[in-house]
Design goal:
Length: about 250
């Protein structure tokens, strides 16, 4: 079953819909703009990952798991709108574990490998795709998780909401990017955004709910088989928060 699933993702020929926006689809000025916006997050993310892995090399395996989770989920795409597609993102798990800056690097690398190996997305649109999936989504997941924990204290609910709402925000950002690049002749940006977001919602809402549930299952698995790493991450976060309060 696993072999069949892997082949369906990697082996079967598919039209080159992007993940999320395909190569050459954005006008040059918008492609450059999103590259410029995304690059600072990537640079700070590299610094964050370097600090984590140097101080705690035993977390590298968990880091790889977070990246692999995002790679596999975001490769399961459903054609949705011309020049784009719907799919889970898998970024919520890594954002909760390692923080949004770290996930900006992992998510960008996922997008890069998929553009080169699976023809999902592209290099010119990598900045736009990275901003929506590897930056906006993870930051949303991180804050949603911590706010939910603060007000409810229920970790599974926090994980579900973080993963599901980060997925939805990713596609809201993608809809904004497409609407900015291709405003409607009548109604401009707003009309174009409503069109893109409305079509995305048909497939993305059930996908976001499914991703939230799957992320909770993976979290439960980590708690059963990797409790030491999770406890270490919790201690690192507490130390970081205490340093910030000094």
């Amino acid at each position: 079953m696993t072999a069949i699933s892997f082949y369906s993702v990697v082996g079967l020929p598919k039209p080159a819909y992007a993940m999320h926006i395909m190569e050459g689809f954005l006008p040059v000025q918008w492609a450059v703009f999103w590259w410029v916006v995304a690059l600072p997050f990537f640079v700070f993310g590299v610094r964050s990952l370097t600090r984590i892995t140097q101080a705690n090399p035993e977390l590298k395996l968990l880091l790889g798991l977070a990246g692999a989770f995002s790679f596999v989920l975001s490769a399961l795409k459903i054609p949705s709108v011309t020049g784009s597609c719907s799919h889970p993102t898998g970024t919520g798990l890594g954002a909760v574990l390692f923080g949004p800056l770290s996930m900006s690097v992992l998510g960008s690398l996922v997008l890069l490998f998929q553009a080169l190996l699976l023809a999902h997305g592209g290099l010119t649109t990598l900045g736009a795709n990275a901003f929506s999936m590897a930056i906006a989504g993870p930051f949303a997941a991180y804050w949603i998780y911590h706010l939910t924990m603060r007000f409810t204290g229920k970790e599974r609910i926090a994980i579900f909401l973080a993963a599901a709402l980060a997925d939805l925000l990713t596609y809201i950002i993608t809809s904004i990017q497409l609407a900015l690049a291709f405003p409607a002749p009548v109604g401009g940006f707003i009309a174009s955004f409503l069109k893109f977001a409305g079509i995305f919602a048909i497939t993305q809402v059930p996908l976001a709910i499914s991703e939230g549930l799957l992320t909770v299952l993976v979290w439960n698995w980590l708690q059963s088989y990797n409790p030491q790493e999770l406890e270490l991450l919790k201690l690192i976060k507490q130390e970081h928060q205490s340093n910030e309060s000094i």
